[in-house]
Specification:
Elements lengths: L4 H15 L9 E4 L5 E10 L1 H10 L2 E3 L5 H14 L6 E6 L13 E2 L25 E4 L7 E4 L6 E7 L1 H74 L4 H43 L4
């Protein structure tokens, strides 16, 4: 049966974690590179590659995966600022226990299994010496360049970074937050536009209602005035009605004045009711 890296990994990790347990102390620190990426770097305490990966995992992190030139450049500048010379540091690359001495053999991210298409190898590396150098280190003799090394019997420092899934979820969450923010802004803009239209319509309605009430009140006054004028003209043309008017005229005038007063009261109440309705609408749709 073909043995793969994935088959061997849990067993090897358990054995190495037990045999190397006396080394599981850490004095690492967080650092921020120029590209704003953050790294947890342990440069003094020594671990084999699997123990280093386990240590990162216990911190909720992963061994750093350097998969492009810009990320590598920023990390190298950071390491130069921390260390006077290149240290031995594990990073999260492996070759799936490939025993071929081919320098172009595949390398993979330990955290995701993704192929790594970038390399920053020391001259002559990776050489897979004795066909058992399956893990990647930043080499102390190579000015921060890489070397392939045996995973289990060399003890170096290590570089951890945020786990790729956490980084992915963070990017996804940022995208969703930006989308929600955009949608909220669109809804707010639409709501504000609706409020403004309602306010404009309320102002128009208030003006039109006021004009209608004034016209109605004025029309009633005109009708009343015309009634009085017509009655007076009728008496002039029909003198015999003077006695009748003298008898009931006071009552007629009182009724007319009372009607006029009622019309004025109704107009005032109608205006007050309409203004109250408009005020409630303005409270519900305040101007933006």
């Amino acid at each position: 049966m073909k043995t793969t890296f994935n088959n061997q990994f849990p067993i090897v990790l358990l054995i190495l974690s037990i045999t190397g347990s006396n080394r599981l102390t850490s004095a690492g620190r967080w650092y921020t590179a120029l590209d704003k990426r953050q790294y947890y770097i342990e440069g003094s305490t020594k671990y084999n590659w699997l123990q280093a990966m386990d240590k990162c995992s216990r911190l909720g992190l992963q061994l750093a995966v350097i998969d492009n030139p810009s990320k590598n450049e920023a990390l190298v500048k950071l390491l130069r600022s921390i260390f006077r010379k290149s240290p031995d540091l594990w990073i999260g690359h492996h070759d799936e226990f490939n025993r071929a001495k081919n320098k172009n053999r595949g390398w993979y991210a330990a955290s995701s299994g993704r192929v790594i298409n970038f390399g920053y190898w020391r001259k002559g590396e990776p050489n897979n010496k004795k066909k058992n150098e399956h893990c990647t280190q930043i080499y102390r003799k190579a000015d921060f360049k890489w070397n392939d090394e045996t995973c289990d019997n060399h003890y170096f420092g290590y570089i951890c970074e945020e786990h790729y899934l956490k980084d992915k979820y963070k990017r996804d969450m940022t995208t969703k937050q930006n989308t929600m923010k955009q949608r909220n802004n669109e809804l707010l803009s639409s709501f504000n536009a609706t409020q403004n239209r309602v306010q404009e319509n309320l102002v128009i309605a208030r003006n039109e209602t006021g004009n209608i009430l004034e016209l109605w009140e004025r029309s009633c006054e005109v009708v009343f005035e015309n009634f009085i004028q017509s009655l007076e003209e009728l008496i002039k043309r029909k003198p015999y009605l003077q006695a009748v008017v003298a008898d009931i005229g006071a009552s007629v005038y009182e009724l007319a004045l009372e009607a006029k007063k009622d019309i004025s009261t109704l107009t005032t109440e109608a205006r007050r009711s309409i203004e109250e309705i408009q005020l409630n609408c303005e409270k519900a749709y305040p101007p933006t």
